[in-house]
């Protein structure tokens, strides 16, 4: 099994729906993105993977502040990357739809 040296979560929003993507940097300097369709997409570098995510209008979760979340229609406290025992279970959690608040 290939190990990863770094993992980051990315999100895109459409209305009250959040679509997650997980970016993993591999030891060899390559990267992979696990997407909401359950696909693991390989990239030759982390920079290439980041660029692909940004082109698809994803933003890095760790860089999100309260104002960024609010601009997307969410409270920062509402947002948390999904967790599951494995990627099969994780796939079902990669798209989250929130009801209107207030």
SSE topology string: EEEEHEHHE
Average pLDDT for all residues: 92
Helix content: 10-25%
Tally of individual domains: 1
In what range is the share of β-strand residues? 25-35%
Instruction: Report Rg.
Output: 14 Å
Global morphology:
globular
What composes the largest sheet?
Answer: 6 strands, antiparallel
Structural class: alpha+beta
Distance between the termini: 46 Å
Total strands? 6
Low-pLDDT segments, ≥5 res? none
Number of helix segments?
Answer: 3
Task: Describe the 3D structure.
The protein has 3 helices and 6 strands. The chain is an alpha+beta fold and 102 residues long. It has one domain (4-75). Strands 1, 2, 3, 4, 5 and 6 form a 6-stranded antiparallel β-sheet that branches. A hairpin with a 2-residue loop joins strand 1 (4-14) and strand 2 (17-26). The N and C termini lie far apart (46 Å).
Task: Write the topology of this structure.
Layout lengths: L3 E11 L2 E10 L4 E4 L5 E4 L2 H10 L3 E2 L5 H6 L15 H5 L3 E3 L5
Antiparallel strand pairs: 1-2, 1-5, 2-3, 2-6, 3-4
